[in-house]
Amino acid sequence: MLAPLLEARNLKKTFSAPGGAFAIGAASGVPAVDGVSLELAAGETLAIVGESGSGKTTLARMLLRLIEPDSGELLVEGRDFLAARGSQLRALRREMQMVFQDPFASLDPRMRVGSIVGEPLEIHEPNLARAARRARVVEVLRAVGLAEDALARYPHEFSGGQRQRIGIARALVLRPRLVVADEPVSALDVSVGAQILELLQNLQRDFALTYLLISHSLPVVAQLATRIAVMQGGRIVETGAASQILNAPAHPYTQSLIAAIPALPAS
């Protein structure tokens, strides 16, 4: 039986609370992630859902080792990800990329799109010829629905939805196996967000991607998720198939999230 692509065991992360040295006892630390365990199989989309402050973004960043956990285990196909160093860590990292929440803040306004999307190639494939690098960048830009003329333009020349497509292209240029999408449509209006979700769905098929989707919105994850894990107060309180979570939630917190979804008015 194949090991999960990514597995977390009892991950914990505590941040210092305001007050510093004057804080007393347990009040001096705020547990952002408190004993989270999960598995992610190749090819699936696992959505982590919860309200702001539930710990889902902290969890996502720990899964990519953008921040280090205080304790716990993190395995990539059975290999100890937390013990990886040097070339082994770089090799694992190129297989895991992130799409950030804010398409306005996540792109360097001083760089042209060709450089933004091509930068990961410069880091991970420094011996790749310039023509080959350009061809890879053009290929991935076309895959996200942008033309070659985007190469020479700056981020401010694009709409919010187009900027998010650029961010997705940057994540895909290394041909990763896992993409973590942190609230990828929350900064976009509904119609543009729907287009981005459809794009992510198509890219998953075309690039054989595994997704970890972070969102506060159950209607958003309903479009993509095969499984859903619900976070509250740094813990996963319920996990299951997307259809089960959305149609027959067991935990009261999940039920409250479902109940909060506004109903469409009758036409």
For the structure shown, list the relevant keywords.
single chain; 267 residues; alpha/beta; Rossmann fold; 2 domains; six-stranded mixed β-sheet; four-stranded antiparallel β-sheet; 10 strands; globular
Describe the protein in words.
The protein has 267 residues and is an alpha/beta fold. It has two domains: 1-18 and 29-95 and 177-258, 3-Layer(aba) Sandwich (Rossmann fold); 104-175, no CATH class. Helix content is 35%, strand content 24%. It has helices at 56-63, 86-94, 113-124, 130-143, 160-172, 190-207, 218-222, 242-247, 252-259; strands at 6-16, 29-40, 45-49, 71-76, 79-80, 96-99, 178-182, 210-215, 227-232, 235-241. The strands form two sheets. Strands 6-7-8-3-9-10 form a six-stranded mixed sheet. The protein has a four-stranded antiparallel sheet with strand order 2-1-4-5. Helix 3 (113-124) runs parallel beside helix 5 (160-172). The protein is globular, with a radius of gyration of 19 Å. The chain starts with 5 loop residues before the first strand and ends in an 8-residue tail after the last helix. The relative contact order is 0.16.
